[in-house]
Fold this protein.
Amino acid sequence: MEVADRIFTFWNTFVRDQIYSIVHGFAPALDERLEDIRTPLPRPLVEYEQKDIRLQDIDYLYKVFQGTPTLPNRADSPFTSFIKALALLRSARVVVANQQDDLSSIMAAAQSFSQSLLGTAENLLEGTNLMDRFLFSSMICSQAALLHLSCATGPSSAPEQVGVASGIADRVRSPYNEQLVRSSQLIKQCLKFALSVLQQHRQQLVGSRTGTRTSLTGVEERISTLTRVINSDW
């Protein structure tokens, strides 16, 4: 358990540092390249307690930046999924801020990870489950990473931008998911970015008069949802 304590201590510190950096706009204290971190990602606590750690299940953060990451034989814990999503979001924001030309590798990594999360929405149960928070945050952060990267590619990817932003809005429509958002400034930060994309799209629909009443109504409903959730408190 001593090894487990060290692993969880490192990653808890990492998560807090990254969240604070994204929410408040400061440089992270752990400013090394994420791909260079060699501390193993945490496995579910029960595996440490039962001394059931298998070599083939040990995973590292750098693998998430590969376009086709190798998944462990047994599923990640929701906390580990959140670590990966958070790392992808930070990396997406960094490459966009630095105006790097080649976004293809991080885009492929974010798409691959988002695909691996398909179906996890079915695991979100009613209640205030900490694991639900990690799963939900993983989905939102990975989609926000894709949205940042898509917006950086310019107007040509406008339909994709709107699709990702709409997906984020649809994800928070249920009362339970709204509850998960309220306690997270990180998720609200992601929702604000999705909201700005949809607001810009609404302006374009109104200005060009090319949008049908149905499409405009759908955008306005999502804008209303995001606005309500972002401004909600406990």
About this structure: The mean pLDDT is 84. The chain is about 65% helix and 0% strand. Residues 190 and 206 are 25 Å apart (CA to CA).
